[in-house]
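[recover] target loaded
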């Protein structure tokens, strides 16, 4: 078995990342509560808006993380690769990029903060200090990117999970320690968050130096590597800017046609979508490096098998949440929000469907990134999204029902997915017939079986918290059985059997 494909490592890393996700999700929620309690609404708002100013200018680095991750993982997957050359070139490029972003933040950013951001005069001095600390945090996080990429490329998810857990524990401790100070809590919090970023950066650097020989730094940039990384990062950054323009455009269309109340509904729906996607994408981190490595080493059959399996698994993970949610959307939204705004149910159901679409497509996107032929795949669908904004606007004007607008958004995303799939099939070893038979058909079979089971269970469970928990538990067991019987092939079933045997044996 090639080292680029190791099913036991995938299983182990998936479990580690799942545990990490559960732990960090709850601790982050608790940390947010502590910060709000100890800082207060005004100071927390100042901290958030100052951070957003730094984030505005960090858009220039938006594509660099995926770029460096791709190149280091690809080089590691080669039979004869020079990972140190890519690592050192990446780190030196990061130094240059950090200098550029630092100059922008200390000139245009400072002007923007002083002249275009509404901050109470009493908080302005603290805001300036918080801004400088946020700039330092931004630069530190940038320099950490190649080290993080090495850890993930080597699939050391135990270290990745442990460092993430340490980071969120320290964040909770910082939030709690605010209660020990009587004044200047905003500044104290910013200092502690910067210190945590520096500490985590040191954790990654020390771990990489101990574990990976290729992390030894040399002051040089390979022109060939720099050109490839620059082109890749340029495309992904431009694509990210187009995507951001589309997302902000939809928010403006909603604001111009239906007002701020529907803006709030859409924002809540996006939070729901992002939470569901984080549930699946965290698990996918365990498979993504092997998708890139098998392509780099020319193991195309294994590469395709990984992509198809990952797409199915991503969708099945969404099913565990999505199908019970669709049957009890209004009650679940009441549990979460208390008072459910008008149209919230329809917007939530639409964005949950989008989560399903994104989850299924993410492994295909990873396969495309592995090829390095990404220009049309990344740019053309995002241009289509921008061009669809006028249509969404006029449909919203024509209709008095905001649901028409969210249905238009979903339709645009579906067409965009078809466009991306078309370009993906042209540049990857994937085949449309395989996607239909090995991904779509099993997904449909499992969905039909799970929907029928959930519908029957809903008739026998009460619409209260106890009933919802019983429904989730029983439906999850039935869904696991359906997936095992009709949702996976023989090889995947054998892998599942091996995992179950290992768990029982331990």
């Amino acid at each position: 078995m090639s080292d680029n494909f190791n099913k036991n490592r995938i299983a182990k890393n998936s479990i580690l990342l799942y545990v990490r996700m559960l732990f960090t999700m709850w601790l982050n929620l608790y940390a947010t509560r502590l910060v709000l309690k100890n800082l207060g609404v005004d100071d927390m708002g100042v901290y958030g808006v100052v951070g957003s100013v730094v984030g505005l200018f960090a858009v220039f680095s938006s594509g660099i993380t995926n770029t460096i991750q791709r190149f280091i993982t690809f080089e590691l997957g080669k039979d004869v690769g020079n990972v140190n050359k890519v690592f050192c070139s990446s780190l030196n490029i990061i130094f240059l990029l950090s200098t550029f972003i630092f100059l922008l933040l200390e000139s245009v950013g400072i002007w923007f903060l002083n002249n275009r951001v509404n901050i109470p005069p009493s908080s302005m001095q603290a805001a300036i200090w918080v801004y400088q600390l946020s700039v330092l945090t931004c630069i530190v996080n940038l320099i950490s990117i190649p080290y993080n990429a090495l850890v993930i490329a080597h699939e050391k998810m135990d270290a990745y999970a442990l460092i993430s857990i340490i980071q969120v524990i320290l964040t909770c401790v910082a939030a709690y320690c605010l209660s020990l100070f009587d004044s200047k809590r905003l500044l104290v919090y910013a200092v502690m968050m910067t210190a945590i970023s520096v500490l985590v950066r040191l954790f990654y650097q020390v771990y990489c130096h101990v574990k990976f020989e290729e992390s030894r730094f040399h002051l040089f940039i390979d022109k060939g590597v720099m050109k490839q990384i620059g082109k890749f990062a340029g495309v992904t950054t431009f694509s990210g800017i187009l995507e951001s323009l589309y997302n902000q455009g939809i928010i403006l269309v909603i604001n111009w046609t239906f007002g701020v109340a529907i803006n709030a509904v859409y924002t809540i729906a996006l939070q729901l979508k992002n939470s569901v996607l984080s549930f699946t994408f965290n698990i996918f981190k365990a498979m993504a490096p092997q998708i890139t490595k098998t392509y780099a080493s020319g193991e195309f059959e294994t590469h395709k098998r990984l992509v198809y399996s990952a797409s199915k698994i991503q969708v099945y993970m969404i099913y565990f949440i999505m199908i019970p949610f669709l049957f009890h959307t209004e009650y679940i939204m009441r549990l979460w929000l208390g008072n459910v705004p008008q149209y919230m149910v329809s917007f939530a159901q639409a964005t949950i469907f989008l989560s399903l679409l994104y989850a299924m497509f993410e492994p295909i996107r990873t396969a495309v990134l592995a090829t390095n032929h990404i220009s049309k795949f990344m740019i053309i669908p995002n241009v289509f999204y921008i061009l669809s904004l006028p249509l969404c606007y006029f449909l919203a004007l024509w209709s008095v029902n905001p649901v028409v607008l969210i249905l238009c958004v979903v339709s645009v995303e579906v067409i965009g997915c078809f466009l991306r799939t078309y370009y993906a099939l042209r540049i990857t070893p994937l085949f449309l017939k395989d996607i239909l038979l090995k991904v779509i058909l099993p997904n449909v079979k499992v969905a039909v079986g799970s929907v029928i089971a959930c519908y029957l269970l809903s008739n026998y469970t009460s619409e209260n918290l106890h009933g919802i928990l019983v429904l989730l538990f029983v439906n999850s067991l039935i869904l696991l059985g359906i997936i095992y019987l009709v949702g996976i092939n023989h090889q995947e079933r054998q892998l599942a059997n091996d995992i179950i045997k290992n768990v029982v044996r331990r």
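[recover] notes: The chain is about 85% helix and 0% strand.
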